[in-house]
Specification:
Elements lengths: L1 H16 L3 E9 L13 E5 L5 E5 L11 E8 L16 H14 L6 H15 L1 H4 L5 H15 L10 E6 L13 E4 L3 H20 L1
Antiparallel strand pairs: 1-2, 1-4, 2-3, 3-6, 4-5, 5-6
Length: 209
């Protein structure tokens, strides 16, 4: 029953997040024994008062500290609608966001923190190569090159509806102390539906006993 309630909260948060601006509370940095933005993915946050989720910063310039809160606009990258996104004025902005989306999706199967850090640096580099270049590792460049190769191939098999973006409502805020844009990798909708169905079935069986 507890799992069912948690899943219900996730679904309700998703519905709320698609209906305009939502409050974000930035929790901080997950990495055990490490602190600070430079450790890379995963950070954690809550959206619209829902459960804690893993998020990735895509904005090298803007910072963030635990407990900071702001209002954000939700974008499903699969819609290809860049209206509210921070970097929508860059040349080939959709491709850049898709490269960043492909990169964050790799964190669902890549669990070494060193790889996740390099993936985050690759995302930062995607939008701000001149500032991020001095901090890039060989492995981070490798992830950039893989994302470029996927883009050239048309991102075969990638479902960008699994990439959600939360952009501060002041989307072009020049203040480096202002809030950052956050990416989130989410499970396949079919996976969530199957999980929900299974949990409902288990709950129903318990009620019949």
């Amino acid at each position: 029953m507890k799992k069912l309630l948690v899943l219900g909260i996730v679904f309700l948060t998703t519905i709320a997040a698609s209906a305009g601006s939502v409050p974000i509370v930035f929790g901080g940095f997950h990495t055990p024994g490490l602190q600070g933005w430079n450790t890379g993915y995963a950070y954690f946050a809550t959206v619209n008062g829902g459960p804690t989720i893993d998020v990735m910063c895509d904005d090298w310039v803007h910072g963030g500290v635990g407990g900071q809160s702001w209002d954000a606009t939700f974008t499903d990258l699969g819609t290809s609608d860049l209206t509210f996104l921070r970097f929508n004025q860059l040349t080939n902005a959709l491709t850049l966001y898709q490269e960043a989306g492909w990169l964050i999706l790799q964190t669902q199967t890549t669990f070494l923190q060193s790889d996740r850090t390099d993936i985050n640096y690759a995302v930062w580099y995607t939008f701000d190569p001149s500032d991020v270049a001095p901090y890039m590792t060989k492995n981070a460049y490798g992830w950039v090159n893989q994302a470029l190769a996927e883009a050239n191939a048309g991102f075969p098999g990638v479902n960008f509806h699994n990439v959600w973006i939360y952009t501060p409502t002041n989307q072009y805020d020049p203040d480096p102390t202002g809030p950052q844009e956050l990416l989130r990798a989410v499970p396949e909708p079919t996976t969530l539906a199957l999980l929900a169905g299974g949990l409902l079935g288990l709950w129903g069986r318990r009620k019949l006993r």
